[in-house]
Amino acid sequence: MIGIVGGVGPYAGLDLMRKVFDNTLSEGDQDHVDALLFSLPSRIVDRTEFLEGREEQNPAEAIHEVLSRLEEAGATVAGIPCNTAHAAPIFELIQEKLDSAGSRIRLLHMIRETVGFIQTALPDLRRIGILSTTGTYRSRIYQDALESAAYKVILPSEEMQEQMIHPAIYDGDYGIKSQSNPVHPQALAFLETGFSYLEQMGAEAVILGCTEISMAFQVPAGRGVIGIDPTLVLARALIYNAFPDKLKPL
Amino acid sequence: MIGIVGGVGPYAGLDLMRKVFDNTLSEGDQDHVDALLFSLPSRIVDRTEFLEGREEQNPAEAIHEVLSRLEEAGATVAGIPCNTAHAAPIFELIQEKLDSAGSRIRLLHMIRETVGFIQTALPDLRRIGILSTTGTYRSRIYQDALESAAYKVILPSEEMQEQMIHPAIYDGDYGIKSQSNPVHPQALAFLETGFSYLEQMGAEAVILGCTEISMAFQVPAGRGVIGIDPTLVLARALIYNAFPDKLKPL
Predict the structure, then answer these.
(1) The complex's ipTM?
(2) Residues B26 and B74 occupy one common structural domain
(3) Which of A190, B21, B161, B216 has its CA 20 to 30 A from that of A137?
């Protein structure tokens, strides 16, 4: 059974589960895969706040708790639809806690799955851009994974990251986490500028490396650059691990 | 904590959870309500097939199992996003099984909540139309609840129900359960005809009384008739029961 750690953020959990259903071969309700979504946002502190030192508690504690409860409820493979939660200080502690508790749940790694997807599905690409939270940006999770697979990584400048990309997600007035239906035009404008910047710096593909970005931002048609959605990659990896014969061809 | 019985069908579970989040007062991830969605479609047989005598197993058994697991995982109030599952032969058995197991979970009744919503939020209405599966149609769940509240109920003819409304949901080629993204034009055309028929027969509001219908069919703007979405009513009732101070005003 597929388990999803929800609440990071709540809509990202729904988005991952929808992408699991959308990528399942089925002809009616009963063919669909079994999946559990535990959305416990009140207990999981913000990931970037922790990585930046403004929050003491490591969100790994609460994420590990949710994973234990998913496992108790029958999940055998699980995913966390939050890129930032895969930064080493968080993800390694989650994995350690699972290991020391003797957990048998298989926790997929969204970032490694995404790099693996680029290698196998888009083998000609070499220059990859990244749009993400500042937590993901500074912890270098995508950079390190891509560079060790010999990709050239292209990022927004520090200034653009802090003044445009992170606020597009987190700003209390116009950020996607505060206002997502519809997304505020200011958030979209900042993401569009970031995307164009990466494109002009030579990116052949851009990883929409925050679940809020991949939900809110559509890569405009007719652009040469490919948008890569890690939530979609994770959804397909979850199906492949739990029900390999039910994975819909791309 | 809010529990959702998913898998009846899978997308209806997502739709209910999204409507819970959309109707929650929140300024960021951590303000959102805690909720669990167990989507176990493989074990829950079709509700109309059972009510029509073509399936022997009562889906109440599996739905009760899911509710027990939701309760074990911490849910205190729960909803089933499937109108047909509220037909007496199914719902009463679920409730009996919960009672005899000493369950303390509070299971809301989507149909009673919907009739209660019409009474309190739309007190001037008297003539209510219903679009639903044939299981819901024949088991008279909405008719009985509305008539005992002194409403005049308006339904599609038997022929229209069997040849247009039920197939719009279930047909293997064009039904919403087989093809929902996008919905097939044939399904939409049948639902539009059903809606117009109820309108012309004098309905002041139409209950979109199957989760597939309320997901796929938008009441066209500028129509005098009001579309009522029981999934939305259930979402708001779940929040009201679990976190009354977090319910967003309508």
Answers:
(1) 0.93
(2) yes
(3) B21
- Cis preceding-peptide flag for B9 (omega within 30 of 0): yes
| Of A29, A37, A178, Cβ closest to residue B27 | A178
* pLDDT value of position B26: 86
Q: Does B7 touch chain A (CB under 8 A)?
A: yes
**The domain containing residue B212 runs over which residues?**
110-230
Contacts of A40 in chain B (CB under 8 A): 34
pLDDT of residue A181: 82
Contact in structure between B67 and B94 (CB atoms under 8 Å): yes
- Residue ranges of chain B with per-residue pLDDT less than 50: none
- Measured between CA atoms, how close is A8 to chain B, in angstroms? 7
pLDDT in tens, A10-66: 999 999 999 999 999 988 788 899 999 999 998 899 999 999 999 999 999 999 999
Which residues are within 8 A (CB) of A226 and not within 5 positions of it... i.e. 6 or more apart?
Answer: A122, A125, A204, A205, A206, A219
Selecting from A30, A45, A181 the residue whose C-beta is nearest the C-beta of B42 gives A30
B99 and B202, same domain (yes or no) = no
Q: Which pLDDT belongs to residue A163?
A: 97
Question: Cα–Cα distances in Å, from B75 out to A40, A189, B87, B239, B242?
Answer: 12, 40, 23, 12, 10
A32:B45 CB<8 A: no
Distance to chain A for B39, nearest Cα, Å: 5
Low pLDDT (below 50) residues in chain A: none
Q: Say if residue A141 is in the same domain as residue A211.
A: yes
**pLDDT number for residue B179:** 86
d(CA A174, CA B184): 36
Identify the CA nearest to A79 among candidates A247, A230, A203: A230
For residue A44, the chain B residues in CB contact (below 8 A) are 29-30
Give CA–CA dist A137/A131, Å, rounded. Answer: 8
CATH number assigned to the domain comprising residue B116: 3.40.50.1860
Residues A74 and A180 in one domain: no
> With an 8 Å Cβ cutoff, are A44 and B28 in contact?
no
Q: Which two tokens stand for residue B94?
A: 């679920």
In this structure, the answer to whether residues A139 and A226 fall within a common structural domain is yes
Contacts of A11 in chain B (CB under 8 A): 18, 21
Q: How far is CA A102 from CA A86, A96, A137, A238, in A?
A: 21, 10, 32, 21
Question: A245 vs chain B: nearest CA distance in angstroms?
Answer: 15
A91 and A7 assigned to the same domain: yes
Contact at CB, B32 and A42, closer than 8 angstroms: yes
**Residue A144 parent element (H or E):** helix A141-148
Q: Are residues A225 and A236 in the same domain?
A: no
Chain B residue numbers touching A133 (CB-CB < 8 A): none
Number of domains in chain B: 2
- The verdict on A128 and A223 lying in the same domain is yes
